[in-house]
Amino acid sequence: MEAKFLQSLHLTTWTGSDSVFPKPHNSMGLSTRFERKRRVNMFKCNLVQTVKPVTGRRASGLKVSCTSQNSPASVLESETFTTEEDLVLKKKSEEIEPCLSGRCIYLVGMMGSGKTTIGQILSEVLGYSFFDSDKLIEQSVGGTTVADIFKLHGEAFFRHNETEVLHKLSTMHRLVISTGGGAVVRPINWKYMHKGISVFIDVPLDALAQRLTAVGTASRPLLHHESGDAYTQTLKKLSKLWEVRSEAYSNAQVRVSLERIAAKLGHGDVCCVNPTQIAIEALIQIEDYLKK
Q: Is 266 left (phi over 0), alpha (psi -120 to 50) or beta?
């Protein structure tokens, strides 16, 4: 992607109107990726408990045992080793990449669903560049965090600029884009995302609540709570968000269900599904969509 084109993408509605899109990130090529050992496990599964179904959300029917140690919920912790899955991922990406014809891939899903990690994996194997829409907004206002943007300017300001980001990105090609959890609520955003291929990463709410509680919710303005049991409060707020957003997520052209992946692999716990397995399933589902 030409640097001059990137420099032309000004977001004039934002504080700091001279901000431009950073150079797309594609940290390593295909050959480098498969020559090194990389992280493949999701959250370490060492605290098994059965979680009750959430009202208004289909029961997972699976055990949830997500824990994390001092890392963002969107970062999938792991041991490092190379597996046969890497080769499957590489082969599938080589089959699909020509069929994409340069179309962008937009990852949507609830906060903490792993969109950033999965997006980075997909961008590497497809030879695409990677963007995180939340990071673009943060950088445009001088590095202000999403939580502080909500606090200083309000959610409406954030959503307006999120739409502007998606508008600008929709004019580009060969990108994998991780969107914010609430990007789906504005119909205009779907207009932009459907210029590419939208992929819904579907993770049960109980698993999300476990992950987010483990790492804290301070950076998640819509989950902030003052007191009470952290897991219970987080699950309650996620359930309310799901009620608002669930119908919007159905607009995605592709759905990647962690429950389905876990069942196919014989796991009783969605948290034992690793990012590579999710990325493989995403490519399989994208391939099926392209065949329609």
A: left
For residue range 108-151, list pLDDT tens digits in order. Answer: 999 889 999 999 999 999 999 999 999 999 998 888 888 889 88
DSSP line for 3-54:
HHHHHT-B-TTSSSTT-BPPPPB--S-HHHHTTS--B---SEEEEEE--PPP
Q: Please tell me the number of Cα atoms within 13 Å of 126 on its side-chain side.
A: 30
In angstroms, the CA 14 to CA 157 distance is 9
Task: Tell me phi and psi for residue 269, to 5 degrees.
Answer: -140, 120
SS3 112: coil
Which ranges of the chain would DSSP assign to H, the alpha helix?
A: 3-7, 30-33, 84-100, 115-126, 133-140, 146-153, 155-169, 187-193, 205-215, 230-249, 258-265, 275-291
φ/ψ of 141, rounded to 5, equals -110, 35
Q: Count of CB atoms within 10 A of residue 93's CB?
A: 22
**Gap between the Cα atoms of 237 and 14, Å rounded:** 29
The dihedral over CA atoms of 71, 62, 283, 252, expressed in degrees to the nearest 10, equals -90
Q: Are 139 and 92 in contact, with CB atoms under 8 Å apart?
A: no
Would you state the structure tokens that stand for residue 196, as one six-digit string?
A: 């590419």
Pairing state between β 105-108 and 197-202? parallel
> pTM here?
0.75
Q: Report the alpha-carbon distance of residue 22 to residue 3 in Å, rounded.
A: 9
Q: How far apart are CA 122 and CA 135, in angstroms?
A: 18
Residue with the two structure tokens 């009202």: 55
Measured in degrees and rounded to the nearest 5, phi and psi for residue 173 equal -135, 160
